[in-house]
Amino acid sequence: METYTAERLAQGFSWTECPRWHADRFHFSDMYNRRVVSLTENGEAETIADVSGREPLDGAELVPAGTGHLPDGRLLVNSMFEKVVLVVENGRAEVYADLRDLAAGPINDMVVTASGRAYVTQLGFDLWKGEEPAPSPIIIVEPGGAARIAAGTEHLMGANGVAVTADGGRLVTAEAFANKVTSFDIAGDGELSNHRLFAELDELPDGMCLDAEGAAWVAFPISGRVTRFAEGGEILGQVTIPQAEAGSSTACVLGGADRRTLYVACGFEVYDFAKSREGGQGSIWQARVGVSGGASRP
């Protein structure tokens, strides 16, 4: 098993989530500061999307989570508690897909394919209100915003981090409340089939990504590590992050010019939005690893 130690790239954020590499740039969601932030190689931050000025639907809290890019370069952002996918254009965030009739609870992560089809995960219940975990199907959002439940995913327990293989043929997701990683085949029309176990886990997973060899990198918020799994469950590698400094490891992505830099989003306070903003303990860590992300998404 290969082992790596991460180093801190930047800090001073709220709860960091959903790291991405797109168009030679790394970015992530600074959730409770209501923005999407990019970082340079030196850790200099730039806000690339700010949704704080938006009037939320139904009086919901504005919290950006999963992001992705359409083929024309426009940014999509999940607004968790509004249960809508926003599209950001010329600095304005507008509703791209309304998922309120499809989502049982706050929506979460997202992956966008080369064709512009998005797969959105959801919790299935309101974690912040202390509700009990419930099944949470994946939602498919077609180019243009038409949305539907992915048939055969109704049983998923907290599908969280989500990724698509380089050939666009498979979708892999971390089921947070089932302690496992699950895989599906993707049909030409976007539907998912052939549900199967990718890896059995020993604790709750959060965000994840894939690499060029088809392995899954999974972030574990409780133990503060990122582990690389082969399909079938064999542990291939592990990245350690000092929990005393970083807190929970929430999600990861492979980026950099050769996509061999593993970026890890970390934070200390997920339940109290104001405390998270005021504390500014959210951070991004990075480690150079031995395999590239290739053309996998995100």
What does the model show?
The chain starts with a strand and ends in a 10-residue tail after the last strand. By secondary structure, it is mainly beta. 49% of the residues are buried. The radius of gyration is 17 Å and the shape is globular. The mean pLDDT is 96. It contains two helices and 25 strands. The strands form six sheets. It has a five-stranded mixed β-sheet, with no helix packed on it. A four-stranded antiparallel β-sheet has the order 2-25-24-23, covered by helices on one side. It has one domain (2-288): Neuraminidase (6 Propeller), CATH 2.120.10.30. It has helices at 243-246, 273-279, and strands at 2-5, 7-13, 16-22, 25-30, 35-39, 45-50, 64-69, 75-79, 84-89, 92-98, 107-112, 118-122, 139-141, 147-149, 159-164, 170-175, 180-186, 192-200, 208-210, 216-220, 225-229, 235-240, 248-255, 261-267, 282-288. Helices cover 4% and strands 49% of the residues.
List keywords for this structure.
25 strands; five-stranded mixed sheet; 2 helices; Neuraminidase; four-stranded antiparallel sheet; 298 residues; mainly beta
The CATH architecture would be: 6 Propeller
Structural class assignment: mainly beta
CATH topology value = Neuraminidase
Low-confidence stretches: none
How many domains is the backbone divided into? 1
pLDDT averaged residue by residue: 96
User: Main β-sheet, in a few words?
Assistant: 5 strands, mixed
The CATH class label is: Mainly Beta
How many strand units? 25
CATH superfamily: TolB, C-terminal domain
Strand proportion, as a percent range, falls in over 45%
- Summarize the amount of helix as a percent range: under 10%
